[in-house]
Specification:
CATH class of the largest domain: Mainly Alpha
Structural class: mainly alpha
Strand content: under 5%
Number of domains: 2
Number of strands: 0
CATH architecture of the largest domain: Up-down Bundle
CATH topology of the largest domain: Rhopdopsin 7-helix transmembrane proteins
Shape: globular
Number of helices: 13
Radius of gyration: 22 Å
Distance between the termini: 65 Å
Length: 312
C-alpha cells in the first residue's frame, strides 16, 4: 500500500486505466504484499488495542499523567488510520472512487506525521521532567500540552491536505526530512534521559525513585518503538538516488512504510504492557496470556516472606 503514497498522481491523471495497488509493480509485488499483511494486523489487533488505550486514559482522567493527552491523541490517530484499511480494499476492488482515494491519501498523511510528532512530544515531556524538574513543575499546567497538541494536529492536517492536493515538487522529501529530524531528536532525548536516570540511581541508592522508575519504563518503551518502527525508513529513504526507480518504488518504500504502519499496533501494545493491571479485561483472560509472569510472582512472594521471617 505504500506505493499509493508515491503514485498518487497516477489516479489523478488516469483516464482509462483503473488504479491498482500494484500499479507499476505488477511483477514485483513482494514488498507491497508485506505492507498489506502488516496493515491487516493493524485492523485485527491495532484498532482494539488503541480503543483500549483510550478507554484506560478516560478511566484514569481523574489522576492523569502529564503525557496522557499525547498518548490519547496518538491512539485516536492510529485507530483512525487502521479503520481506513478495509475502506482501502473496498475502494480498490469495488468502488474505485476518486473521492474515496483522496480520503485514503489524507489518512496516509495523518499516519506519516502524527506518530513521529506525538512521540516527540512524549519524549520532550519526559526530558523536561527528568533533567529539568523545577521547570517541569512550573510548566505542569495542562494548557501547555493542549497547545502543543493543537500545533501537532495543525501540522498533521496541513501535511495531509498537501498530500491530497498533490503535484508539489519533491513533496516526499518533506517526510524524509521530518522522519530524520524526529528520529534524531527522540534518540538524543531518550539517551539523555537514560543517562540521567542511571546516574541518579547509582548515587548510594539500591532502588530508583518510583517516579523515575516510571519515566525509565516509558523511555525504554519509546526506544523500542523508535528502533523497530522508525529506523528502517530512516536508514533506507535518504538513499533513494542509489536505487533504481522501480526497486525504490516497489521494494524500498513499501517495506519502509510497512514498519512505520505497524506502529499503529506496536505503540498501544507497548503502553498496555507497562500497566500493572489491564482494565476492562477479565482476570482469567489476563492470567491466560500472562501465565508465566503470574507463576513467577507467586513463587517469589513466598520466598521473600520466608527470608523476612528468618531475619526477624
Amino acid at each position: 500500500m505504500a506505493t499509493w503514497r508515491t503514485n498518487a498522481t497516477v489516479w489523478d491523471n488516469a483516464t482509462v486505466k483503473a488504479f491498482s495497488v500494484f500499479d507499476g509493480c505488477d511483477s514485483q509485488v513482494e514488498g507491497i504484499l508485506f505492507d498489506l499483511t502488516l496493515q491487516c494486523i493493524n485492523v485485527a489487533v491495532g484498532i482494539p488495542a488503541n480503543i483500549l488505550v483510550i478507554a484506560v486514559l478516560v478511566r484514569n482522567r481523574k489522576d492523569p499523567a502529564t503525557s496522557d493527552i499525547y498518548l490519547g491523541s496518538l491512539a485516536f490517530m492510529d485507530a483512525y488510520f487502521g479503520s481506513m484499511t478495509p475502506i482501502s480494499f473496498l475502494n480498490l476492488y469495488h468502488w474505485q472512487s476518486k473521492e474515496v482515494w483522496s480520503a485514503l491519501k489524507f489518512s496516509y498523511g495523518v499516519k506519516d506525521t502524527s506518530g513521529p510528532l506525538f512521540l516527540s512530544c512524549i519524549c520532550l515531556d519526559r526530558f523536561v521532567a527528568v533533567l529539568f524538574p523545577l521547570a517541569f513543575g512550573r510548566l505542569n499546567n495542562i494548557k501547555y500540552r493542549v497547545g502543543l497538541s493543537v500545533l501537532v494536529f495543525g501540522l498533521t492536517f496541513a501535511y495531509s491536505a498537501a498530500k491530497v492536493v498533490g503535484g508539489l515538487p519533491d513533496f516526499e522529501k518533506v517526510f524524509t526530512g521530518e522522519i530524520l529530524a524526529t528520529f534524531t531528536w527522540m534518540v538524543m532525548c531518550n539517551a539523555s534521559i537514560l543517562w540521567a536516570l542511571k546516574k541518579s540511581s547509582s548515587v548510594g541508592k539500591d532502588e530508583m525513585h518510583p517516579m523515575k522508575r516510571k519515566a525509565f519504563k516509558i523511555v525504554l518503551s519509546i526506544l523500542c518503538i523508535i528502533v523497530v518502527n522508525y529506523l528502517p525508513p530512516v536508514a533506507l529513504f535518504p538513499f533513494e538516488d542509489y536505487y533504481s526507480p522501480d526497486v525504490f518504488r516497489c521494494y524500498v518504500q513499501p517495506v519502509g512504510f510497512a514498519f512505520l504502519n505497524i506502529s499503529s499496533t506496536i505503540q498501544p501494545l507497548v503502553y498496555l504492557s507497562r500497566l500493572e493491571k489491564v482494565p476492562f479485561l477479565p482476570d482469567t483472560c489476563v492470567r491466560k496470556w500472562c501465565s508465566c509472569v503470574a507463576e513467577v510472582k507467586v513463587k517469589t512472594k513466598p520466598a521473600q516472606n520466608t527470608s523476612n521471617q528468618k531475619k526477624t
